[in-house]
Write a structure and sequence with these properties.
Ribosomal Protein L15, Chain: K, domain 2, three-stranded parallel beta sheet, little secondary structure, 10% helix, 3 helices, 181 residues
Length: 181
Amino acid sequence: MAKQVPSARKRTNKRGDHKPAHVAPKGANAGRRTFSLSTLKPPMGSRKKKVRVGRGMGSKLGKTAGAGNKGQKSRRGYSRRRGFEGGQMPLHRRMPKRGFHSPFRVEYSIVNLEELNVFPEGETITPELLRAHGFIRRAKDPIKVLGDGELTVKFTIHAHAFSETAKHKITKAGGTFEVVA
């Protein structure tokens, strides 16, 4: 009996390429894989097909599509609210509330008098100048000058608010202050 010769049909390798799996590169690249943008592929097993739920009993996730039977969580469009504790009284309502929190509170950026000693004598200090020199972090906040430290330089300062101590120390040093609206 004569031996059977294997057919010359094209075989696919593990990745599904329609190149013969048994042909190796020849020449200098023998035994080495060449990479280029046209040959890049994700590693085997890293890309999986999306599970299509609710597509019949043969798909493992037919009928209820993994959502179980009945109840709020099995319904279409369900999304749990942030902080929801299953109908139990939520933590933010169990905690005691104390004091009064004004919705109209103004948050000031604070500058102390001793920090302003770096400016030369006779300078007019404005909110823009304070922001440019890095005394203020948030640009939109109004500025309040507090009276911490000693003032050794005489200047004019423009700010949105001044403490009583700051006003006293500025006038004592020979400077002036002006409230900006």
